[in-house]
């Protein structure tokens, strides 16, 4: 995990040259994947044109893996984050609406094993897989569950790049702490089969069927790399839910890099009124257009904006208008650049 400094070696020309840095013994056992510190200002207005939220929030995200054998074929992965629920990884600072919140939970903890190359078996509390679908038509990016998953990534034999099957329990929406949800490992209310394929250099697609509490939802999504004048990428995703009432929804998003460090995007989403509120809280239900912008100030620092406006909806919309300004500091990039983490 930690580098102990830079070693020097004598080259054949007799000139001293830097050798590969000595690896700290922890690096044999520990991988650090994420150390992000974030701040956000958000303002939300409902469909009665009442501003319900205007606040400053903060967030912390940590993720790492403990390797239990030299080849890392068995490992334990954990992820901790702020936030108090299924669709949030943010704490209120007390600036603006809402009382201060100081929550930090270990939201994911699972064991993974690679019995053969290209096959991974996971057990415990983990995130959901979405393929090319996003949190607009799928579950929120902060979502969690407990259960078991088998992923097969052997495209030469199985055609698809990824085939994942998941079974477990999705619930306890106000219980982010994984240790308080592990007792659900013997319960099953959720099942999913997902396949994804990079068909060409410019087209990637995925499809899945998910069954939650005896209701099936069918999803499909494609990402198209255009590198054209109007857009660099276009993303389309949709879902169809069985049961009563049955429903259909979709979203389309386009992004374009207008400068070397600036990317802008725009999209449209149509999510049915009974979706259930477990998709991204920035979208939830209803028809809306949205705009995004991401400015990379440095390898460590990013500023992003999000704005959305709902329209032509027959039901009450809690996030009729929304604006987010997010600043992300990638502390892991700083630590790697300083040679403290590999």
Can you walk through the features of this model?
This protein is mainly beta and about 350 residues long. The protein has one domain (about 10-335): Porin (Beta Barrel). About 5% of the residues lie in helices and about 55% in strands. The chain has two helices and 19 strands. It has helices at about 155-160, 330-335, and strands at about 10, 15-20, 30-45, 50-65, 75-80, 90-95, 105-115, 120-125, 145-150, 160-170, 190-200, 205-210, 215-225, 235-240, 245-255, 260-270, 285-295, 300-310, 320-330. The strands form two sheets. Strands 3-4-5-7-8-9-10-11-12-13-14-15-16-17-18-19 form a 16-stranded antiparallel barrel. A two-stranded antiparallel ribbon has the order 1-2. Strand 13 (about 215-225) and strand 14 form a beta hairpin. The longest helix is centred in the C-terminal third of the chain and has 7 residues, at about 330-335. It starts with 7 loop residues before the first strand and ends in a 5-residue tail after the last helix. About 25% of the residues are buried.
CATH class: Mainly Beta
What percent of residues are in strands? over 45%
Radius of gyration from CA coordinates: 22 Å
Q: Would you give the CATH topology?
A: Porin
The low-pLDDT segments are: 1-20
Helix and strand pattern:
EEEEEEEEEHEEEEEEEEEEH
Tell me the CATH superfamily. Answer: Porin
Query: How would you state the average pLDDT, rounded?
Result: 92
Distance between the termini: 6 Å
How many DSSP helices? Answer: 2
Question: Based on CA inertia axes, which overall geometry fits?
Answer: globular
Strand order of the largest sheet: 3-4-5-7-8-9-10-11-12-13-14-15-16-17-18-19
- Structural class from helices and strands? mainly beta
For the record, the CATH architecture stands as: Beta Barrel
SS elements, strand count: 19
